[in-house]
Amino acid sequence: MKIRIFTVLFFTSILHAGQPLPEGGTRLIKSDWFTAPGLFNPGRVDGRPLAKAEVVDVAHPAFNRAMRVEVLNPGGLFYSSAVNIYSTQKVQKGDGVIVQLYMRSIRNEDESAVSRATVFVQGPGPGYKKYLLREITAGSEWTLYQLPFTVSDARAAGKLSLHIGAGGGDKLQTWEIGGVTFLNYGKKVKVEDLPVTRATYEGRAADAPWRQAATARIEKFRKGDFEILVVDSKGAPVPDAELSVTFLRHAYHFGSVINAGVLMGDSEDSEQYRETLLELFNQSGTENDLKWPPWEQEWGRHYSQEQTLRALRWLKAHDYYVRGHVMVWPAKKHVPQSLGPLIDQKDPVVKQRALDHIKDISLKTADVLDEWDVVNEPYNNHDLMDAFGDEIMVDWFKAARSYLPDHKLYLNDFGILSGGGRDTSHQRHYEKTIRYLIDRGAPITGMGMQGHFGETPTSIPRVYEVLDHFHTTFPDLDIRVTELDVNSSDLELQADYIRDFLTIVFSHPATVGVQCWGFWEGLHWRKRAAMVTLDWQLKPNGRAWKHLTRDLWWNDFNGKTDAQGRFSDRGFYGRYQLKVSVNGKEQVQEFDLRKTEAGKQILKVELSSE
Hints:
single chain, alpha/beta, Jelly Rolls, Immunoglobulin-like, TIM Barrel, eight-stranded parallel barrel, six-stranded antiparallel sheet, 13 helices, 28 strands, 24% helix
């Protein structure tokens, strides 16, 4: 067996103990912020208050009053219930600002014995632009958080607000917030020079318990035993035949979406784009090119059906498994513009237009795609269902199957794995929608779960818990992570999370692949999340991805057949090249190692007599 030498890097993050704040900051809130009107929004879930709050006396060296929040009815989103503190001073574009606060848990039902809240700073509605978004946790002792950020817009007094959200999740909890400081340093201090409590996530430690179990599952579910039997032209075993078994391609999908125009371009960047895609990924699909409006030429000259089809053919020619995204994204803003007024009028022509679109795009791409997201994000995008009923989703799946008898068909949505894995309203809706589709005969074959993460990504044990829940609930459906990225300025955390998230997902037997939502900084919807820099250097997260998929989870084999002409080993499922050498003659062929009911795959190689 060929042995690969590698080093696993475990980046660690120590909870910041706190540093003194620099002099010269301007207070953005009053010291008695807890007396302001509108301080707390209790929120409502299923008609009942989500939480309640009160100001309490506490004994702490830095403060003597705190805000106590009791979550009575878990659910909603992080902002559904929140402490609200509004600025009393203006800020300028580019100002460096810091939030400092203390948190402690009074009571909680979380398995990790911590309470959770979300700190966010935003501008006014209707946009509510976020300048800071960070989940914070604490046990029974006061924990200090120092959270600096840059304000990218000028805001008048009262138009920049600090919130501590109590919404989201499914656990009863009570926590306190105290010592809240909100300071603006303008341009006098660089944001990177301000003290910061670095983000982390549960399961990051090198000795985290989940690692051993994940390794065992990978060995069990992602590898198989094989035996190669070499015989001569008369069927007699050939001993001492030299074998070289080279791994060519994983059966599991480690992928990224692409832009068709750049993939098919003739610039140096396009050439490097293709080379990097081939180096890092074995699965792909388009980010935007197959969406309904660009498919119908509504997005301008950079998108065309001819260009999209050329890109898809290139992917298939290079042996990629290719996904289609998306047949119907059922909101007015995501369908052709001409349909908007018709949706408002509930004109049935919309239903036929959707079916015609599914027929058109299915037939034109049938030979260059392997699967489709039939419906995308129905939790937030439901204008078509509001107008025509949920049964139209069943019609869309059935229409897709009528033109694509063998393609995999997915329901894709966000908020299932991200957001701490605690957006229970979104998860319940996703589960309810899948059940609705199955009960009405929709030919759904897979669950697409997006994976967009920020500065405080979902704990690794929670990711596995969510995956396992949906697999247990729908055991016949595949699971694919369809849109992975980690949007963080902390490159070590970003790399660690890619490593750990990919490991825990790969270890779950129901998953079939992980697709990144882009890889190059020059063409990424969240540039910080890219794996490759603008000048084509691998970032730490890209190196972590490559190390797992091309080193740690990779195997080649060398050896000789025994006296019975046999060679046995165990390898990752996928495609291999086999070279058999006897008396200076070499015979080459490829084979796929797949899971078999027999438990061992046997490949018989008959040597040519020539």
